[in-house]
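Predict structure. Chain length: 115.
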Amino acid sequence: MPLTIVSGAGYAERERWIAENCLQHPRAAVILEGLPTGGMPLSDLSPVHVQRIAPGCFCCIGHLPLRVSLNRALRQGARFLYLGVASQEHLDNLKHTLQQAPYDQLLLAESFISL
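Prediction complete.
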């Protein structure tokens, strides 16, 4: 499954960028770090599946919730995956996680977008 990691800027900017790009990818799954920003169009997109993980670094405090969310998206038949992360600080650790089994066989890290 193709994967795009979107980092930087604020929550609203990341979500807006992802929402605009989800229109090109039917059956996308979105995993976001952080709470809803309010009024974002992601909730209106269908059949986009959106999951949120509490604010905090995916590789430090959110490792298990990230893996659970990734597994759920894969089981639900998503055709494209977006990860929205706040900081690029630990992006290398996140990439490393995604390159480990089983994700190395299931995800194709297609692009990394920094806003």
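Summary: The chain has four helices and five strands.
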